[in-house]
Design a protein that fits this description.
Elements: H1 4-29, E1 38-39, H2 41-48, H3 52-64, E2 68-71, E3 75-78, H4 83-104, H5 110-128, H6 132-146, H7 153-165, H8 167-173, H9 177-195, H10 199-224, H11 226-236
Length: 238
């Protein structure tokens, strides 16, 4: 039987690893580590004052989220912005999120709608203040609040991961005034439809909302992303 001290070791590592995941994820999303950056385990261990074990675990978690790639002989590399990933993520979101909303919205109580209003106000405030670090987080929080009453835990877990993966894409998509204004209006319209219990229309509009974000992202990333341009240039030189 393991002693109490022996049982604490893996828990400590998991706790450290989770904290490192959060910090590295934020650094990738805010551009501190841009696409193509190499994340060295020894350097990160020194920076965080930990051994390489929790750093390695954190990098594996970020690989699962699609934020880094583990490359033989090179280690962890921050993933490039990917058109294929955008399409994959948004195909899944378009399928899963209206399904969640269809089950969740009919069960909304006043507190659920008030919660959506609160998130919407904070979202609008973050946009006006150009607080980039909060855009993706509040967008994800808004969408998950729409699905709060859905009794589909596995589907919700998948959608949480999809929203997390698309966080840096959301920040990129919201980087112009027009996109920010559209996001505000469309989120407000979703709340109004839910409040009026127009469930079918809310689900259709949610699907349109997801598709419009995808289309905007494909134009932004495909038309001018440094990561995409460099990838194309590399392939052209092969």
């Amino acid at each position: 039987m393991k002693t109490e001290d022996q049982m604490k070791v893996p828990l400590k590592h998991r706790t450290l690893s989770a904290a490192i995941v959060d910090q590295l994820r934020q650094s990738i999303l805010d551009g501190t580590y841009p696409a193509g950056s190499q994340l060295r385990q020894d350097a990160l261990g020194d920076a965080y004052g930990v051994s390489r074990i929790p750093v390695r675990e954190a990098l594996f978690q970020l690989e699962a989220e699609g934020l880094v790639r583990i490359v033989p002989q090179k280690g962890a590399i921050v993933s490039e912005l990917s058109l294929d990933e955008i399409n994959d993520v948004f195909d899944l979101r378009r399928i899963l999120e209206p399904r969640l909303l269809a089950q969740s919205a009919p069960c909304f109580a006043a507190k659920d709608l008030d919660g959506l209003d609160d998130i919407q106000k904070r979202f609008e405030k973050a946009i006006k203040a150009r607080n980039v670090s909060e855009w993706g987080q509040l967008n994800a929080e808004f969408h998950m609040a729409l699905y709060a009453q859905a009794r589909q835990p596995r589907t919700k877990a998948i959608v949480v991961a999809l929203l997390q993966t698309s966080d840096r894409y959301t920040r990129l998509q919201l980087s112009n005034t027009k996109a920010m204004g559209i996001a505000e209006k469309e989120h407000a319209h979703l709340i109004a439809l839910c409040r009026a219990q127009q469930i079918d229309e809310a689900c259709r509009f949610l699907e349109q909302h997801i598709e419009s974000v995808r289309a905007d992202l494909l134009q932004v990333v495909g038309g001018g992303s440094i990561a995409v341009r460099s990838k194309r240039a590399t392939r052209a030189g092969e």
